[in-house]
Amino acid sequence: MGRPETFFGPKMQPWSWQAFGFAVIVLAASAGFQGVCVLFGAQLYFAAFLPAVFIVGIVAGAPAAALAILLTVPLVWWAFMPPFFEFSPLTRADAHDINLFFLFSVLLIGLADLCRQTVTMINGGGLKATDKTVAPNSQ
């Protein structure tokens, strides 16, 4: 009897145009959500974009998530940091926010890549009881 497939593995290849297109679509949706948050008075510039980076990293892979990061910074700087819809010199606090976004995004990409590899390993039957890397049952 075969094991049931409970996990849906990543369907996009990491360097495909579909993966990069998915990153741009998710980024646009996050920008729309961030715009709604700004209308309600939120001052968190990157709040909607961190989950987007994680979602893109899981579904489309690390290269597409890196593209999402690289597109997010100028987008937030231009559209959501005052003065709106123009590039102005960054304040120290804005530069600090961008640095924290980079840090958290890199950590999220690593976590997403680890999740992606785990799902691929589970779906592909990567670990079997006969593998040398699996510890024998000591009971």
Description:
The protein is an all-alpha fold and 139 residues long. The protein is 62% helix and 0% strand. The protein has 4 helices and no strands.
N-to-C order of helices and strands:
HHHH
Helix content: 55-70%
Shape: elongated
- How many DSSP helices? 4
Query: How can the largest sheet be summarized?
Result: none
Q: Kindly name the structural category.
A: mainly alpha
- Give the radius of gyration: 19 Å
Model regions low in confidence, pLDDT < 50 over at least 5 residues: none
Mean pLDDT: 87
Please state roughly what percent of the residues sit in beta strands, choosing from under 5%, 5-15%, 15-25%, 25-35%, 35-45% or over 45%: under 5%
Could you give the count of β-strands? 0
Report how far apart the termini are: 26 Å
Summarize the model shown:
By secondary structure, the protein is mainly α.
Topology record:
Layout: H1 17-39, H2 49-60, H3 62-79, H4 92-124
Helix pairs in contact: 1-2, 1-3, 2-3, 2-4, 3-4
Question: Tags for this entry?
Answer:
139 residues, mainly alpha, 4 helices, 62% helix, elongated
